[in-house]
Amino acid sequence: MASVEIAAEHERILREIESTDTNCIGPTLRSVYDGQEHGLFMEKLDARIRNHDRDIERMCNHHFQGFVDSITELLKVRGEAQKLKSQVTETNQRLQNDGKELITSMEELKKCRVQQRNIANTIDKLTHCLPVLEMYSRLQEQMSAKRYYPALCTLEQLEQTCLPRAGQYRFCSIMAENIPKLRTHIRDTAMSQLRDFLESIRKHSDKIGQTAVKQAQLQRSLDSSLSIQPRTLIGRRGRKEAMAAATESDGSPLSEQDSGILDVEDEDDDDDVSGAQELVDFSPVYRCLHIYTVLGLRDVFENYYRKQRRKQARLVLQPHSNMHETLEGYRRYFNQIVGFFVVEDHVLHTTRGLVNRAYVEELWELALSKIVAALRTHSSYCDDPNLVLDLKNLMVLFADTLQGYGFPVSQLFDMLLEMREQYGEILLKRWNITFRQVLDQDNYSPIPVSTEEEYRHYTSQFPMQDPELEKLPFPKKLPFSEFVPKVYCQLKEFIYACLKYSEDLHLSSTEVDDMIRKSTNLLLTRTLSNCLQYAIKKKNVGLAELVQVIINTTHLEQSCHFLEEFISNITNVPPDTVNATKLYGTSTFKDARHAAEAEIYTNLNTKIDQFLQLADYDWMASPPAGGTLSASDYLIDLIAFLNSTFSVFTNLPGKVAQTACMSACKHISTSLMELLLNPEVRQISIGALHQLNADVKECESFARAGPVAGFQGDTLLLAFSDLRQVRKGGVRLQASRRTCKLQ
């Protein structure tokens, strides 16, 4: 059994050796040598080798004939192969000989192909490089010509399109490195030009504004009917629309050749006034705006522009400290403001968003507050009505000019109405001086006229209607003095001065009429009234002068309705219009006349007192020995004075003369009564009573003579009735005392 197992094991190992790769046979053989029967195994291996040899021999014998046949065929093929080889060698030799020229031609063709390819590559590279060089050359030309916006566009095209196509070349790298520098240079140069532009328009805003104001003035003179409507400057809208359309169509500045401010000093003051915008070249603004837009810095540019213009606005709106001294100061101030806002209005309409309506309105609101404050301050220093009137005309033109550009100017007209009150006060002060000069220079005597021309001259100055006076032959006298026509003319001049201020204020006829009437009332009730009171109550005014004042004021009072008609004619407002202001001239002249009358009464009594002070009664005088006792000398002089004074009262209204006469008589009676009843007079003789009786008779004789017409019966004698009763009582008392002594 052991031998069988060993034989089976050897058989397995042999099969494994036959079927296993020689690389893996080592472990198999090791298992054989590990055992003790390797000799038996070697015998088995030899037997197996012999078996395989017999199989190989048997197979070789079986295929030998085929092998011999194959060798025979192979020998035959070798001969044919030798022949083919010689033929191939010959053919190759002939081919080599014949292909030498072709090879030479192919080498030449290869070189040509290489050259052609190089040329094509060169052309392709030059095709991409030449536009770069041409564009860079164009860029240099544009930079030299200072055409920065096209240069920036060229720079953008060079950077974005041409350089990427050209490839990596040294000159391209140099160009690429220079592009940021060129862009910075363009930006800085554009900003520098903008600064120059801003500085230039700040310096020339006066000239720009002056041109715009002239243009508005020309527009108003061409069509005065537009004076109550917003004014549109000639050609302004057309130019704005054209410029705006040009800007929006291609997004580029209107003209690269326009740069800076035109030479405004060379502008002639011709009748053909050019537009204010034509004095200014706005291309630096457009150019800088487009450049900063392309650079992506539009917001930076807008903020810078607005900030600088706000600073300039504050400078423009700051008036000079002596602006109020001359009209030229105001004109320059207004022209600068107009010039500033003309520029802003043009920029608003010709750029897309650099400034907007809200920004311009904000600036205008600031300007309005500053202007009103400055005018309120500086106009308060003015005391010349002509300067105020010129300032008003200048302000109206200023407001109309800016209104033509679409700016609201209602506050300016409100300021003009406020200044109207100041103008009225200045006029009142001026006319106060004028009235006082007229009153001081008047001779308070009726005006003598010798010829018809003189008469017509005075009647043309003062509306007088006196048919009886006209019938009198020359020479004759007008009842009033020079004061009347002069005052009446001055009243008309004052009304004209008020009317001048109301012109072009866009007021209705009713408002103008009301304004003139109120101002005239102030002149009458305050200024003229005070002047008349001054003339009446000043020292050394005689009764004759006061009488003439009464006559003058009477005629002026009668002329008040002519003043009403005069105002209605120049304002085209009927005097009977509802709510129309009435003139207070009648009451003014009445008050002045009453004051003069009171002053006459006072002065007359004062003069009587002066005469009475000369009275020197001897209250213990002896009775007269015989004959008629004459009146006292002082009383005779007083009566003579009264007669001469009342003779002047012939032209006075009857009641005034009568009142003055009655007042004088009563005052004489009262004064004599006071002398008689004076406590210091303790005793009165019959002689003194006789002298007093003679004086009373003289007074009664004066009263009976009727120094002033109009008294009925013995009315004037009643003034001395009390004195007569006291005198009679004294006489009876003295008689009774004498009787007692005799008894």
Structural write-up:
By secondary structure, the protein is an all-alpha fold. The chain is 74% helix and 1% strand. The protein has helices at 2-19, 26-34, 38-144, 148-166, 170-222, 236-250, 283-294, 298-316, 327-350, 357-379, 385-404, 410-441, 452-461, 467-471, 483-502, 509-537, 543-558, 560-571, 585-612, 633-648, 654-676, 686-704, 721-742; strands at residues 447-449, 476-478. It has a two-stranded antiparallel sheet with strand order 1-2. Helix 12 (410-441) packs antiparallel against helix 15. The protein is rod-shaped. The model is unreliable at 225-273 and 737-743 (pLDDT under 50).
For the structure shown, list the relevant keywords:
mainly alpha, two-stranded antiparallel ribbon, 1% strand, 74% helix, exocytosis, EXOC6/Sec15, EXOC6_Sec15_N, rod-shaped, EXOC6/Sec15_C_dom1, disordered C terminus, 743 residues
